Amino acid sequence: MDTLTDAGDYFEDTFKGLLWIEKRLSGASFEECEFIDCDFSDSQFHGCKFTQCEFVRCNLSLTDMANSQLYGLTFKDCKLVGVDWTKADWPQYYRDFELKFQRCLLNDASFYGLTLNELVMDECRVHDADFREGNFTDSQMTHCTFDRSLFMHTNLERVDFSNSTGCSIDVLANEIKGATFSSFEAVHLLESLGIVLVD
Asked: Which InterPro entries match (predicted)?
């Protein structure tokens, strides 16, 4: 398909190479849809619903998801710079929204205060992102770079950070019980305790 309409109802549709830049869509519903090589940069999806959809090599940078519901989404090789995920509609009765990001660019994203248990981020670049006050229990954040990202009063219990770098996490200001870190990266956690290591 090559067009989108307000309040449209899309089921098992495939969108390839769709250019939807700086546009606005309201009240549309997408279920089990696939988006391939689409450009939605600077667009607004207001009050939309995305369920069990997959995005492959798409550009969603600066996309506004205000009041939209997101469930069971997979992003592969996508660019999602500057997305404020807090604007979406996250029902409190859910804790795991089954969101997966694989090899994505997530710089300058905001997850502030969100509860996204079992979130998956694999081989992603997540620089200058905001995870403060959030709950990401049992998430997988592996093979990622988190340079200058913010963690404060964040629940990171049992989060797998294996092979991830740049994790500047204060062990006294965050919940990290059961979290997994690579040995080299774990050394940086001690800096928040003022501990000096020598060979």
From this structure: 5peptide_repeat (IPR001646), PA_immunity-related (IPR052949)
